[in-house]
Specification:
Blueprint: H1 30-51, E1 55-56, H2 68-71, E2 74-87, E3 92-105, H3 111-120, E4 124-130, H4 132-136, E5 140-141, H5 147-168, E6 172-176, H6 184-199, E7 205-209, H7 217-224, H8 232-242, E8 247-251, E9 269-275, H9 285-295, E10 304-308, H10 317-338
Parallel strand pairs: 1-4, 3-5, 4-6, 6-7, 7-8, 8-9, 9-10
Antiparallel strand pairs: 2-3
The structure holds zinc ion.
Length: about 350
């Protein structure tokens, strides 16, 4: 009941990478970098356990970015051919690598990292992968022509990776699809089909994380443009409720999402964002408990997973730590009330 988890990413320690920055360059190299990432993952596994987080993750300490971390080992991508591209329907510009040939997974991407984490925690373990649509919205295409075709090609590779992660003992494989909130028609046309391809044959839990983004300025400005009610989820939740994906996330903390939209996910486990990642104010346990209780008006506690709104990579490390503790403590308050 009320199993806690996070959206995935957590800040890198300053000795590992430049803090409070997306795409932060590593501060170590070679063997030092490999062991540094492992040390950072250990710190966060321990912090999550101590905070009372039930389904823990590596905090994405092994990758510099949630999409490109997966792509770095994929064949068919030219990292010299960087293309400037408007991301999330031109919300911001980024220089991204370019697909120039059929994409292939020639080796395991995250296998060693998952094995490492599995060795060091007895908690349920989540591993995050970028979703096919979000990959296609974060890389330039000079080969496939149609975005849906490229998404299916990536979905096949994600499926190979997900099957390996499951065999290692990962309990939840989460696909990050912030693009689902932006291209709602495409979600229904091919986005969910691509997710189904990525999760084909999996027996562990599958999850999809859909958010309004990290707390960076471009996202904050976008949110201000969305009006008094954010109803993007309303367009895609009915189709997601029909899908095979087990867990669906939504933002609740300080968001303008009508909580009643959770009624559209009646057959799913719902990851409810009860921690705001767009500010540096650590929530009190009471504030967290209040959002969980509001969400419980629409989702019974057996299906409700208190979670963060999004990843916490760009936050200061001590703030993210504090927010993890608040998440655990707030959930614990509600559990006590429920007896
Ligand atoms: Zn997110």
């Amino acid at each position: 009941m009320l199993k806690t988890t996070t959206a995935g990413s957590l800040p890198k320690p300053s000795w590992l990478a430049e803090p409070e920055k997306l795409w932060a360059p590593w501060n170590l190299s070679g063997e030092d970098l490999i062991s540094g990432k492992q040390d950072a993952a250990l710190v966060w596994l321990k912090e999550q356990e101590n905070a009372g987080i039930d389904i823990v993750s590596d905090g994405e300490q092994f990758r510099s970015h949630f999409v490109h971390g997966f792509l770095e080992k994929i064949e068919g991508i030219d990292w010299e051919k960087m293309t400037e591209m408007g991301i999330r329907n031109n919300r911001y510009l980024a220089k991204v690598p370019t697909v120039t040939a059929p994409v292939r997974r020639i080796e395991s991407v995250h296998g060693d990292e998952a094995r490492f984490c599995r060795r060091f925690t007895k908690h349920q373990l989540k591993f995050t992968l970028p979703g096919p649509m979000t990959i296609c919205d974060t890389i330039a295409d000079a080969h496939y022509g149609r975005r849906s075709d490229m998404a299916m090609a990536f979905a096949e590779l994600l499926n190979e990776e997900a099957k390996e992660l499951e065999a290692i003992g990962v309990d939840v494989i989460q696909f990050d699809e912030p693009a689902f909130n932006v291209f709602m028609e495409d979600v229904k046309e091919w986005g969910i089909a691509a997710l189904h391809r990525a999760t084909e044959g999996l027996n562990c839990k599958s999850a999809v994380h859909i958010c309004y983004g990290y707390g960076i300025q471009a996202n904050i400005d976008w949110k201000h443009s969305l009006g008094s009610e954010w109803r993007q989820y309303e367009e895609i939740f009915p189709a997601l409720n029909e899908s095979r994906i087990n867990q669906i996330s939504l933002e609740c903390a300080h968001s303008k999402v009508p909580l009643s939209l959770m009624k559209l996910l009646r057959d799913k486990e719902v990851m409810v964002g009860v921690i705001d990642v767009a500010n540096s104010i650590v929530e009190t346990p009471e504030e967290v408990a209040a959002i969980i209780k509001k969400a419980m008006e629409y989702v019974e506690p057996e299906r409700l997973l208190p979670c963060t709104n999004c990843g916490m990579t760009p936050l200061a490390r001590e703030i993210a730590s504090g927010k993890l503790v608040a998440l655990g403590a707030g959930t614990s308050l509600v559990r006590k009330e429920l007896g």
